[in-house]
């Protein structure tokens, strides 16, 4: 049975949230990532050594730990927890799905107090490892693994994606918008469904072109997909494709240098910090970092809840828009975003999870 994590529980995270407003899904103002001052304070905070006797391992999905979005956000959460508590952390990168089970098993056999599987695709492997090692504690992002020693964290990506859809629908000048997905799985379909619904809610005349690359670790495929969509007249692309999405940004940068103004909407992290304000319209934050930090801290505090499923949406600050959105998104559009956010939280708007 799914339970929604309260805002109070989120307070244990290391990064301070200025969230109110991609998505994984924004209250009186759009959600924001930690402010520079808060981030600096968190980074500078000395360890209290409460976790020095604990080991937490993280197995990445394909795309690597430095994918600029999903995996990187998870690792940043653990890295901040290390600074705060002194916990020992380590990651193992998966180059293919064949690496999932061996990587997970390595941490379990090495006596790690918690082993993370980052990504929907790791569900079957994590289930197998959890069943074979009932005394081990494991956790997963973006999938539900039914086992008494696994905590599962999912997000209402469709809610945050709806809001960036509102931004796209009100910003586009061509009424042609694109969506580039990685692998066609339920998580990414939630991004797509919410985004298209948000666009259509404010701009029924806009057309959204969908392109799935089939990969989360192929920037060249992302660049090619973006080129096709931009060539068809789109001026905005939202990607939910891991490091494949880096190619979308690369294509947008190339076009901007040649005098053609196009935008990209980032995913998971505030991608304007990586790719710049010149091409990043906004991003759909999915606070994987906070989720990983919270569950990991529960292990240190002996509060781990195996068998629990947590779903984080707009009302939990689990998804939203970064404060940097104000750089390129007009005040009038941001006001609309707030209005739709309130309607989603109240239940007036039910955002679809499937296209």
SSE series = EHHEHEHEHEEHEHEHEHEHEHEEH
How many DSSP E strands? Answer: 13
How would you describe the shape? globular
Average pLDDT confidence is: 89
Structural class: alpha/beta
Query: How many DSSP H or I helices?
Result: 12
* Rg estimate, integer Å: 19 Å
Instruction: Report strand order across the widest sheet.
Output: 1-12-6-5-4-2-3
Question: Short summary of the structure?
Answer:
The protein is of the alpha/beta class and about 350 residues long. The chain has helices spanning about 5-10, 35-45, 70-85, 100-110, 125-130, 155-170, 185-200, 220-230, 245-255, 270-275, 290-300, 330-345; strands at about 1-5, 55-60, 90, 115-120, 140, 150-155, 175-180, 205-210, 235-240, 265-270, 280-285, 310, 320.
What do these coordinates show?
The structure is a single chain. This protein is an alpha/beta fold. Helices cover 40% and strands 18% of the residues. The protein has twelve helices and 13 strands. The protein has helices spanning 7-10, 36-44, 70-85, 100-109, 123-132, 157-171, 186-202, 219-231, 244-257, 272-275, 288-300, 331-346, and strands at 2-4, 55-59, 88-92, 114-118, 138-141, 150-155, 176-181, 207-212, 236-240, 263-268, 280-286, 309-312, 319-320. The strands form two sheets. A seven-stranded parallel β-sheet has the order 1-12-6-5-4-2-3, with helices on both faces. Strands 8-7-9-10-11-13 form a six-stranded mixed β-sheet, sandwiched between helices. Strand 2, helix 3 and strand 3 (88-92) form a beta-alpha-beta unit. Helix 3 runs parallel beside helix 11, helix 4 runs parallel beside helix 5 (123-132) and helix 8 (219-231) crosses helix 9. It is globular and about 55 Å long. Mean pLDDT is 89; it is low at 1-44.
């Amino acid at each position: 049975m799914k339970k929604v994590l309260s805002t109070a529980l989120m307070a244990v995270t290391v990064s301070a949230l200025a969230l109110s407003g991609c998505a994984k899904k924004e209250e009186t103002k759009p959600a924001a990532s930690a402010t520079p001052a808060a981030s600096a304070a968190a980074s500078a905070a000395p360890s209290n050594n409460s976790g020095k006797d604990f080991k937490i391992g993280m197995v990445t999905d394909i795309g690597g730990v430095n994918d600029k979005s999903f995996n990187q956000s998870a690792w940043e959460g653990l890295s901040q927890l290390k600074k705060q508590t002194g916990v020992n952390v380590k990651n193992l990168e998966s180059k293919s799905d064949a690496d999932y089970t061996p990587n997970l098993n390595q941490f379990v056999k090495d006596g790690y107090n918690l082993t993370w599987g980052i990504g929907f695709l790791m569900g079957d492997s994590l289930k197998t490892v959890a069943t074979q090692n009932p005394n081990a504690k494991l956790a997963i992002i973006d999938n539900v693994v039914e086992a008494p020693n696994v905590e599962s964290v999912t997000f209402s990506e469709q809610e945050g994606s709806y809001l960036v859809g509102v931004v796209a629908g009100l910003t586009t000048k061509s009424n042609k918008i694109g969506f580039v997905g990685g692998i066609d799985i339920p998580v990414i379909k939630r991004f797509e469904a919410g985004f298209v619904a948000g666009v259509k809610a404010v701009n029924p005349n806009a057309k959204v072109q969908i392109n799935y690359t089939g990969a989360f670790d192929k920037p060249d495929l992302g660049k090619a997909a973006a080129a096709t969509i931009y060539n068809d007249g789109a001026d905005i692309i939202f990607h939910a494709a891991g490091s494949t999405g880096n190619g979308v940004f690369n294509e947008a940068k190339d076009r901007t240098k040649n005098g053609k103004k196009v935008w990209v909407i980032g995913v998971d992290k505030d991608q304007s910090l990586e790719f710049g304000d010149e091409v990043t319209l906004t991003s759909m934050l999915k606070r994987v970092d906070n989720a990983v930090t919270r569950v990991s801290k529960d292990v240190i505090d002996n509060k781990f809840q195996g068998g629990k499923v947590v779903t984080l949406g707009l009302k939990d600050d689990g998804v939203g828009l970064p404060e940097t959105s104000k750089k390129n998104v007009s005040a009038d559009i941001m006001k609309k975003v707030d209005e739709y956010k309130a309607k989603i939280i109240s239940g007036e708007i039910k955002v679809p999870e499937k296209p």
